[in-house]
Amino acid sequence: MRKLTIVSGAALFLISLTMGCQTKPSAEELFTQAKKYQENQDFAKAVDVYQQIIKFYPYGEQTDEAQFMIGFIYANHLEDTVKAHEAYTRFLEKYSTQTDSGMIASAKWELANLGRNINDIQMLKSFAAGSNTTSDTLGAKTTEQ
Hints:
By secondary structure, the chain is mainly alpha-helical. It contains 7 helices and 2 strands. It has one domain (27-129): Serine Threonine Protein Phosphatase 5, Tetratricopeptide repeat (Alpha Horseshoe), CATH 1.25.40.10. Helix 2 packs antiparallel against helix 3. The longest helix has 19 residues, at 2-20.
């Protein structure tokens, strides 16, 4: 009887050990998955995966970008300005000292223009009206006729 208890206990230990050792995807794999969801316009799933990156890899190299992308998706695709504001604010609070300055400027611009119609943003109107040049796919500027 004692041998059966020891064997049963050892078996349960091994089963729980193998179940607990399941590996989670890397941050890079999750980021790739989130981008694919975005490309397929499955924005809710993309947000979920970006949130997984933040949860599982809070100090990872792509965590700041994941937080930014959550705000971007809420603002520009799901049109939820409240959640976009929360996500961008969290991005600026947590990552502004360690992230790309372009993302910081973009997050600040998005916050300042949340909920506004893109056609009503004066800066964009001025830019569009004052520019008669476009860049082709190779980056060379051409003048419109």
